[in-house]
């Protein structure tokens, strides 16, 4: 019996694609030695080949900042055996750009960011370095997700979050994501048996009522620390805040088209004589 | 003839509201001594009482970064006679927060950011400190706009941009903006007579093809400068990039709800067994 060459080639390609493990880029904003990123790396090594490029120091609240007026450095570090890990002097978004163009020299099959020590739900998505790294992945066309655990403790228990990250990452690798979309995943702080499930949500209209702690330095000069109180007046049961309050993991699809389409008709009525 | 007290009070309040000038907060990301912000302040003094709180150094590309792991300073500076001006050690978003809570002690009637030296159209909106300041205004419920002129020169000619800023600011003060929406205004570099008009647009799907300039320091160690090439494959005639290429001012309404609503149905199909 004669077997066509094309069929043999197809069989070979199928076998190759099944044995080739996905390339997974891991980053965060708490710094490369945070417990959260180590937890995420541990899970991702089960699913693929892992490369870590993450900030050499805490970069929380850096939003989508990029370093354009300064230089960037990369330094290999040891995080765990068998995992290539590089610390970067820049922001989380810098890490993603350098990882793609100077470390991997290609786009990874998956980008995961976190696990953040603390929430990045609702309005926090715009301030969050963790989520900005994931969003930069989406800009680059990489299936991406940011994970955040609602506990600021540096030695928090990430076991439940690891399980959630595994489930979400498997889903992304299997089902992919719509073009230009990444996921904002927040995990409530509760014991594993109390976790109610995983909910797909929209971003709640919740905000920070800012304040500043006004102090004097030893020389008598004024300085300020940002403080604030989180306020949620959005009672929608389809929101991330509602999910988290009810012990669900919240998953919000996030994109970078900031156009407020609903506002276009009003603006079309304006008078613009130059 | 007897005139009711309530009617007299109404007349008084009407007279007061007509004479009271709007309070306008001006900020930017190029720093408080940039030519662009001076140009914006000159125009805004025609429209209201102006207070400036802006970075003490260039903060381009800082996106929505906030200072949460460091202190902030405010220092009065002289910008022009009759205008209260304060430099801030933080990011553009820090400037907005400090201005509201520690300088003005109330929300201004209008927030304008810029005039930026260089474009903030399409994807640049997420990296831009100029636009993040405006977006923070929207988060705070303040009618806000960011202005950017497509010329990086520090001594650029801002006369056309000033005229555009005047028209847009008057429109905002007259018509207000939808809740949670600010404007991303970009002004093409062309002589005034060639300017075709002002167009309401959506954000184009245009991106940076990043690259890095890899160098060695005097000690032989590697470092990197972010570079890149702007690429626009979105040919939509309703985009900001199309408007600018055709010598129109582009105005994109921008909001902070990053939910990718169109991606929700796909995600609802995923398997999430914990």
Q: Secondary-structure blueprint of this entry?
A:
Two copies of one chain form a homodimer.
Chain A: H1 5-19, E1 23-27, H2 35-47, E2 49-55, E3 74-77, E4 84-88, H3 92-104, E5 110-117, H4 129-139, E6 144-149, H5 159-175, E7 181-187, E8 197-200, E9 206-216, E10 222-232, H6 240-245, E11 248-255, H7 264-268
Parallel strand pairs in A: 1-2, 1-5, 2-4, 5-6, 6-7, 8-11
Antiparallel strand pairs in A: 3-4, 7-11, 9-10
Concise description?
Chain A is an alpha/beta fold and 274 residues long. Chain A is built from 7 helices and 11 strands.
Ends distance of chain A = 79 Å
The multimeric state of the shown protein is homodimer
State which percent range the strand residues of chain A make up.
25-35%
Report Rg of chain A.
21 Å
Greatest interface and its participating residue counts? A-B, 82 and 82 residues
- The helix-strand sequence of chain A is HEHEEEHEHEHEEEEHEH
Mean pLDDT of chain A, rounded to whole units? 94
CATH class of chain A: Alpha Beta
**Dominant shape of chain A:** globular
Strand order of the biggest β-sheet of chain A: 3-4-2-1-5-6-7-11-8
Structural class of chain A: alpha/beta
Q: How many separate domains make up the residues of chain A?
A: 1
CATH superfamily annotation of chain A:
Survival protein SurE-like phosphatase/nucleotidase
CATH topology heading of chain A: Stationary-phase Survival Protein Sure Homolog, Chain: A
Provide a count of the helices of chain A.
7
Largest sheet of chain A: 9 strands, mixed
- CATH architectural arrangement of chain A: 3-Layer(aba) Sandwich
């Amino acid at each position: 019996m004669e077997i066509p060459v094309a069929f043999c080639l197809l069989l070979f390609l199928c076998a190759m694609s099944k044995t080739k493990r996905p390339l997974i880029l891991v980053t965060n904003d708490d710094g490369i030695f945070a417990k959260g990123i180590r937890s995420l790396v541990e899970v991702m090594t089960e699913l693929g080949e892992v490369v870590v490029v993450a900030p050499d120091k805490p970069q929380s609240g850096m939003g989508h900042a990029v370093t354009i007026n300064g230089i960037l450095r990369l330094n290999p570090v040891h995080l765990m055996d068998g995992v290539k890990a590089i610390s970067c002097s820049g922001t989380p978004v810098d890490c993603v750009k350098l990882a793609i163009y100077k470390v991997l020299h290609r786009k990874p099959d998956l980008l995961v960011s976190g696990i953040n020590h603390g929430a990045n739900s609702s309005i926090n998505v715009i301030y969050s370095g963790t989520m900005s790294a994931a969003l930069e992945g989406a800009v680059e066309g990489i299936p991406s997700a940011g994970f955040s655990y609602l506990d600021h403790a540096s030695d928090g228990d990430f076991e439940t979050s690891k399980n959630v990250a595994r489930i979400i990452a498997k889903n992304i690798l299997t089902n992919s994501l719509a073009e230009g979309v990444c996921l904002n995943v927040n995990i409530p702080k509760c014991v594993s048996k109390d976790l109610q499930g995983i909910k797909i949500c929209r971003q709640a209209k919740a905000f920070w009522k800012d304040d500043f702690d006004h102090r004097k330095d030893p020389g008598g000069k004024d300085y300020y620390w940002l403080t604030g109180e989180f306020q949620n007046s959005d009672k929608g049961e389809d929101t991330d805040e509602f999910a988290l309050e009810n012990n669900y993991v919240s998953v919000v699809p996030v994109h970078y088209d900031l156009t407020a389409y609903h506002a276009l008709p009003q603006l079309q009525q304006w008078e613009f004589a130059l």
